[in-house]
Amino acid sequence: MKNFKLFSKLFVIFSLVVFTACEDYYTEMNQNPNGVDLAAANPNLMMTGIMQSAARSYLGLGYGNLAGAMQHTQKDGWHSSHNVYDWGPTDWTGWYNMLRDTEFMLRRSQELEWDFHEGIALTMKAFIFGNVTDFWGDAPYTEALQGESDLVNPRFDPQEVIYTGIIDDLNAAVQKFATRNTLGLISQNDIYYGGNVERWERFANSLLLRYYMRLSEKMPSIAQQGIERIYASGVFMQSTADDANMDLLGNISQDSWPENVVQSSSAGSEFRRIKPCATLVGKLYELDDPRLRTWFRPVHCRWVEDPTLPTAIDEFIRENGVLLEGRRSFLDIQYMDRIAEGNVYTRHFNPALKAADPVLANVPIDTREIVGIPPGLVTPDGFNLNPTVGQTIENQHVSQLADMFRQASGEFLKARILSAAEVHYILAEAAIRGWSVGNGQQHYEKAVELSLQMWGLGNEYGNYINNAGVAYTGNIEQVLNQKWIASWTSAAESWNDFKRTGYPQIQAGPASRYPAVAVRFPYGNDEINYNNRNTIEAVGRLEITQFGQEIGDNNQWAKPWLMQGTGNPW
Q1: CA dihedral sign of residues 194, 197, 198, 199
Q2: Is 342 left (phi over 0), alpha (psi -120 to 50) or beta?
Q3: Is 263 part of a structural domain of the chain?
Q4: Domain final residue, candidates 365, 390, 406
Q5: For an engineered disulfide with 90, which of 42, 439, 521, 541 has Cβ 3.0 to 4.6 Å away?
């Protein structure tokens, strides 16, 4: 009887447990797994995705098409958008998806009164909106991110309004960080600074320096006052430890270096298409810059002048000086292995016979150890008398990027958003303009030193800073040329400097549709098709130049407000 009573009690308890579990299960099943309840959302979980998407997108442009526009790199296959700005309508969907998530994080942080998370949301919102207006021009801003309302066709705000809002948001972010309130923080979710609120404050102020300088031609008094105020505070990036970077893990494509060979589905052909541009290579040679050999690999097969050669050029390559009959080239991996074993590959030409040859006389040959492709060539794959044109075998007579860029991750492979080097270049430019920000030479030299440190070359600074062309002259062009070099792999900022100042002085190549570097992305088809009236109104505020008119007013050579009336960059 006692056993029966015990069994009965156990059965009742078991039944209740099962019923409760089933009720919980069906309750969970009836919830939308893809929806996020605002009342329960955790800002820590949101910010990681926002940071990753923003950094990855910025890297993708700074190492991609904008690196081509700024003549850091050129492609010798599938090259038109990279080398000659063949940009059609370009949608901004990815950036606004980030902004919706950021707005969600901002609202939730405000509800929880988590100052640190609110500051991050404001900073990332400013950074992302800054890229939208930098790249396209006027854009939805005050009426954007209102998908919960009936407003589905937001108007495009003028750039002046957007830049002013960016500055307001960054100033608000600085105030939030200054409270040092890190309530609710899960530090590992902060993939930039690991929850270091002081560094976030420096980052926000440094972004302010970027955008104040962006306005230096259009709103000079506001720009000057803002930069002087931040400099006086001392709260801005000072060392490479302050840099806003995202480390790359190399596990999947989303957290790996772009176009690496480790995860390539095409035997590394995407990597091999990216070559150094002769513009950057020439400047690095001119300045005897140590970054030249850090960023670029010597050519697999070097051209050698040989006055004793009985023909204008060698038909085949040489291994350690011995002609390899029938061998015009090796595959990339074969060259890599053979060179690693100590073999040296050359190809000879007789300058006198070449000059007398009606076909070869006007074809240049670059005999240097490191060779870049000139910008905007009609047939970049054939440059430097490449015997294997096309995309099957790489150009053995043009350098590839350094071996570290083949990898999915590495010590120096980072998604760089903003650096202390950039900050000191900004302050050097401000000092030359006569603003009260300290000594221009000290800022310039600090910027150069920091930019070398970013690539593990800090010990080269002492020699480099005294080189001809590097030693400080107090000239804005010199500052911006060095800033352009330092923006390697993050060329978006040098593109914005070029549009603002015309420096560095680069020219479009012969294959470009127009003899000028493009200055914006055309508005995309989503806006043209679904928000047409507001898009047309924004296009009407562009300054239509002598370039691009046959394409239509929404073209990549039309000038947004920031460039209008400045005479820059052309």
Answers
A1: positive
A2: left
A3: no
A4: 406
A5: 521
Relative to beta strand 274-276, strand 414-418 is: unpaired
Go through the chain and tell me how many residues it has: 570
In angstroms, the CA 276 to CA 415 distance is 19
Kind plus residue range of the DSSP H or E element containing 207: helix 197-214
Residues 443 and 482 in one domain: yes
Tokens of 450: 């920091």
Q: Are strands 302-305 and 345-349 parallel, antiparallel or unpaired?
A: parallel
Q: Are 124 and 132 in contact (CB under 8 A)?
A: no
DSSP letters spanning 94-137 = HHHHHHHHHHHHHHHHHHHT-HHHHHHHHHHHHHHHHHHHHHTS
- Two tokens at 214? 């962006």
Last residue of a domain, one of 406, 437, 455: 406
What residues does 276 pair with on adjacent strands?
A: 73
In a domain, residue 146? The reply is yes
CA–CA separation, 14 vs 8, rounded Å? 10
Residues 526 and 508 in one domain: yes
d(CA 382, CA 397): 10
Class of residue 258 by CB neighbours under 10 A (exposed 0-12, middle 13-18, buried 19+): buried
How confident is the model over 2-60, as pLDDT tens digits?
333 333 333 333 333 333 334 333 233 333 334 556 667 899 999 999 999 999 999 99
Question: Which of 319, 367, 323 is closest to 343 using CA atoms?
Answer: 319
CB atoms within 10 A of CB 230: 23
Residue 382: Cβ-neighbour burial (10 angstroms; 0-12, 13-18, 19+): middle
What distances in angstroms separate CA 241 from CA 73, 349, 418, one per listed residue?
28, 49, 12
Identify whether residues 27 and 63 lie together within a single domain. Answer: no
DSSP at 299: P
For residue 208, what are the domain limits? 36-255+413-570
139-186: pLDDT as tens digits: 999 999 987 777 889 999 999 999 999 999 999 999 999 999 999 999
Distance CA 18, CA 29 (A): 16
Is there a single domain that holds both residue 348 and residue 369? Answer: yes
Tokens for 541? 């505020």
Pairing of strands 156-157, 139-140: antiparallel
Residue 124 in any domain: the answer is yes
Contact 424, 202 (CB under 8 A): no
